[in-house]
Amino acid sequence: MTILELHRVHKKYLQTDQFAVNDVSFQVDKGEILSLVGESGSGKTTLLRLIAGLEHPDSGYISLAGQKIVEGKKSVPANKRNVGMVFQDYALFPHLTLLDNVKFGLKGKVSDPDKLAKDTLSLVGLSENFSKYPHQLSGGQQQRVALARAIAPSPSILLMDEPFSNLDTILKDQVREEIRQIIKNTGVTAIFVTHDTRDALSTSDRIAILHKGYLQQIDTPRNLYEFPVNGYVANFFGRRNELLATPTKEGFYSGFGFIPDERSRLFYSQVRLCFRPENVRVEKTDQQSMCGKLLKSTYFGDHQLLKIQDEEGKTIKVRANAHTIFERDALIFFTVKQFQVEEI
Fold first, then answer.
1. Cβ pair 16, 68 in contact under 8 A
2. How far is Cα 273 from Cα 338, in angstroms, rounded to an integer?
3. Mean pLDDT score of the chain, rounded to an integer?
4. Are residues 189 and 323 in the same domain?
5. Are 67 and 161 part of one and the same domain?
6. Each residue of 34-74: pLDDT tens digit?
7. CATH number, domain at 314?
């Protein structure tokens, strides 16, 4: 069931010539977690504000729970949209207890706000902290209070702006999984903005990638990573290798050697072979004798990244075992396990 629909939405701010959001259309299903990712200025925060009612689009329409909340000059006010919002800095009231923070958004909406606030705080794992104040909590706990306040009124959709950006790396991994589980347990539909690809890949059911106001691709994390529709999407999740190669009946010739592959018969001119560092196995075989000179090895604990150069000076990066010692300028033999072929 579709909860949110955006149809050909445009938004341009007065002080700029370019659209912040340009002809964006997509749907979000009930219970889905969608992340909006992109560089600064890509339009992701503007989209969130348009859905929340904090901005009005120049054209297009937005439907929420079967009701058009924006079309033409007509717009349902932000406080009438039944949208929950978690801000980047959590926006908790410092002078109110956790219970009163959650109850604040329930005034006049439910018959027993005290019970609902307590139940919601218990749901997010804060059942013993009702009387505490925000400054007495950790960053992760403050975020859960903000989440409880947003979901207590049973919103049609939950919007989160950079929800994990204020957390340190160690805490972020833990909180990210907790927040996802809480959202899934409540069944609420959620959209969050993030610049962190790790947050998006690990938390989202689908990811929408924006670039200069345009929606590039919206898909599952796996499909975006393994089957990107263009180079921008591919490199957004970490640089991929791109090799120029010449097709023959048996495979592809590149500066690093020959790759046997039947797909080569489908092409008649030079192509681009695209693969990620982890799609390479550092080994020497009789079937695929590719090799290059090692320029640099960077250690990451659980693996190392090798920068390899061919005789023409072209370079690629490959992932290797963390325990193997490689000497600079050594000849590195490798095989490519998986790659895409693109016409030039």
1. no
2. 10
3. 91
4. no
5. yes
6. 999 999 999 999 999 999 999 999 999 999 999 999 998 89
7. 2.40.50.140
CATH number of the domain where residue 148 is located: 3.40.50.300
Strand order in the sheet with 67-71: 21-29, 2-11, 59-64, 67-71, 74-75
* Nearest of 154, 63, 155 to residue 116 by alpha carbon: 154
CA distance 305 to 303: 7
Domain count, the chain: 2
Beta strands at 241-247 and 271-275: parallel, antiparallel or unpaired: antiparallel
Structure tokens at 285: 């075989």
**In what helix (H) or strand (E) does residue 178 lie, and over which residues does it extend?**
helix 169-186
Q: Do 71 and 165 share a structural domain?
A: yes
Residues 220 and 326 in one domain: no
**Number of alpha carbons in the 13 Å side-chain half-sphere of residue 185:** 13
Nearest to 67 by CA among 59, 55, 58, 75: 75
For residue 287, give the DSSP letter: S
Per the DSSP assignment, residues forming a β-bridge with 26 are 6
Do 70 and 112 sit in the same domain of this protein? yes
pLDDT, one tens digit per residue, over 192-248 is 999 889 899 999 999 999 999 999 999 999 999 999 999 899 999 888 999 999 999
How far, rounded to the nearest angstrom, does the alpha carbon of residue 28 sit from its chain's CA centroid?
Answer: 15
Q: Please tell me the number of Cα atoms within 13 Å of 17 on its side-chain side.
A: 0
Q: Letter for the amino acid at 71? A: E
Q: In whole angstroms, give the CA distance from residue 132 to residue 332.
A: 59
Quote the pTM value. 0.87
Task: Report the amino acid identity of residue 335.
Answer: T
In the numeric block, the tokens 């990620």 are attached to 276
